[in-house]
Amino acid sequence: MIVCQRPSGLRLFFTYRGSILQHIKTKLLVTILLALAVTLTHGTLFRLKITMTPVPFSLIGIALAIFLGFRNSASYDRYWEGRKLWGQLVITSRNLCRQVLTFIDTDNTPSSPSPLKRQMVYRVIAFTHALRHHLRDSCPNSDLAPLLPADEWMAADRARNKPKFLLENLGHDLRRCLEEKRTLAYFAASLDQNLNSLGDILGGCERIKNTPIPFSYTVLLHRTAYLYCFLLPFGLVDSLGFMTPFVVGIISYTFFGLDALGDELEQPFGLFPNDLPLSALSLTIESDLREALGESDLPESPRPVEHCLQ
Fold it and tell me: Model-level pTM?
């Protein structure tokens, strides 16, 4: 996620990092070169003059803009839902940690939590890291190994859905607390609600990751945008003349940019500059929960690399 201050004036106009230009520069250059060739040949292809009026391009352009706007709205809804789910993860993790430290083994002092308390809080931290790697299809071993016992870490490594595995172990911990009378049933029900909330967050993130916008809709928009921009010079060259490449470049930048932006926002859990900063959120949760345990050796606060948080 880009976290730098919004530039103003010419700096905003020429900003490259974080802009969609770096994803569409090749196709945009090809379109401008095609428009330049059409301008130099006055729309003649193999000695055949291709005559097209701007009217059909105006009609198609309006329809294309409407559909691209609708797709980008749908993509942004997915992006914002993902951010809300991770915001809820921060809240639920803190609440669960507070309840574990308050309502389990109440004879322990807050500054010296029992091994069971520490184990449960560490599992919540491990769940956060495992969820991030689960959504990004990356390996979580380096993050999980310091947080889990050796046998549990090896079992988690074999699990297909590692966040789900850790949630199940947290449920077993809660049942153990009830059986050993380390907490009351009323407090256990409240703890279980937060475990259910973590499960809902996991399911919501998996829904976004595994259910993209229908492929046929995306293909239709891609094809229409490409055909429109590649044919546009033939409809403008007779009326605009030498200004055709410039106008085609602006229009192509808009349509190609909106198309690429929808692709980028559709999957918000990746590693692109405009994706959600899952690593930073995970470290924030780990730092808060370990501080609640009374630890002083906390992970460093996430810092943006070239104005980008991952």
Answer: 0.88
